[in-house]
Write a structure and sequence with these properties.
Layout lengths: L1 H25 L2 H6 L2 H24 L6 H27 L28
Helix pairs in contact: 1-3, 3-4
Length: 121
């Protein structure tokens, strides 16, 4: 059993990394940065925990897809949905102060070819 605990601990750490990478890619990193740390920590740990529990339920049952594993997969999907809602909330209601992103107004000009040359077709 100690090797199984080590496997579940390793799975938890890998799932934690995967949750945050997925969240940053799907929910946009800029929106994730606007959320408070405790929201990110809570949802990330809950998602990784649900993944480990789904795996443990699949290993403990006679078949991989049993009632407990399906329930934990559902909990995992619900937590991922909450991550999406948190990103949507950050997009709609939290504003980026842009302290380091001082963008200056830029002027776009049209580049003209000299009269003697023709554009390649």
């Amino acid at each position: 059993m100690p090797i199984l605990r080590l496997a579940y601990t390793t799975l938890f750490l890998i799932a934690l990394i995967a949750i945050f990478v997925l969240w940053a890619q799907v929910g946009v990193q800029a929106h994730l940065d606007l959320l408070p740390w405790f929201v990110k920590l809570g949802l990330g740990v809950a998602g990784a925990y649900a993944i480990v529990r789904a795996t443990a339920a699949a290993v403990a049952g006679e078949h991989g897809w049993n009632g407990h594993s399906v329930r934990w997969v559902g909990v995992t999907l619900a937590i991922l949905f909450l991550c999406g809602l948190a990103s949507y909330y950050a997009h709609m209601y939290l504003e980026d102060t842009g302290e380091g992103d001082d963008q200056q107004d830029t002027t776009v000009s049209r580049v003209a070819m000299p009269q003697g040359r023709r554009a390649l077709s």
